[in-house]
Amino acid sequence: MVQAKTEEFRGERNAGLIDNLTAVWDSSVRTSHHFLTEQDISALIPQVKTALQGIGHLVIAWEGAEPVGFMGIQEHKIEMLFLAPSSIGKGLGREMIRLAIDRYEAEYVDVNEQNGQAEGFYRHMGFRTFRRDETDEQGNPFPILHMRIAKKIVVLLASGKRKGNTAQLVDSFARGATEAGHEVEVISLVEHEVKGCLGCNACRYEKPCVQKDAFNGLVPKIKEADCLVFASPLYFWTVSARIKAFIERFYSIAIQDENPPFGRYEKYPVKDCALLMTAADDNFWTFDKAADYYQYTLIHYIGFHDKGMLLAGGCGHTDGKPQIDKTNHLEEAYEFGKNIYGKD
Predict the structure, then answer these.
(1) What is the three-class DSSP state of 79?
(2) What is the pLDDT of residue 160?
(3) Which stretches of the chain drop beneath a pLDDT of 50?
(4) How many CB atoms lie within 10 A of CB 47?
(5) CB within 8 A of 99, min separation 6: which ones?
(6) Is the dihedral of CA 156, 162, 167, 172 positive or negative?
């Protein structure tokens, strides 16, 4: 249904072009921004022209020689996106958003709260509100919704205690990430048993593992996730056997790499990852071996992108009740989840 040609404008942003784009903006806001008065629109026009001249990436949709829409992107943020009324509802907005995400790695956008249609559109495209301001940047009484692309975060919980220290740490992390607008799913590796690798090589290069356990059913969730968070209590100075077994089975989702980097023999899906751990001890070396395993295996070998570690020591005696609520770790986990993809 999209008929317009969309491309980044790399030529001179002369007065004629800026005037034409401003006319698109004017017709667009009169259609969608009913809360703006004539005086508001007139006052904004000089700011729009300045923004069009200075924006880092200016993408224009053309029908013949006439612009029917434009989008401005700066540092992973969609700063402006306006379509002529005649081009709304034809799929052009979706095409431009996909371009912003795929080519320019856009993750953020601000929307006027009164423009419910725009908010609904961005929500449909995967954005979620993570902060609200009562006024716009100029101090006008137009509330602004700050939105970001919702990341899919899968937490692999290896603790067998439903109310244990690690489970509480995961709950706090998930709460922070959810409030930041991300989609979080917690998968218990106790309820979904995953056995260790047999080393039979039958699964080489994306063939299903021959073992009849939960792993093959979890593969779609792994592939769809933007971030995998590994959550484990400290067992004998490293991650639990459940976490290690789960990681071993990644062998079945690797693909052939004709030119692998030195020391690697296959290619794994590109993911972000993080580590959450708890322990009774709180010595300076308590988590050294676990952190080394995480860094070497998941970051250096598999090639995931590290989003950080929260190593929560001093969570109570092994023989006693969970004491993590007596520490600052739950608040740290909440902040970690909330800010895992950047601070507000």
Answers:
(1) strand
(2) 83
(3) 344
(4) 11
(5) 6, 59, 71
(6) positive
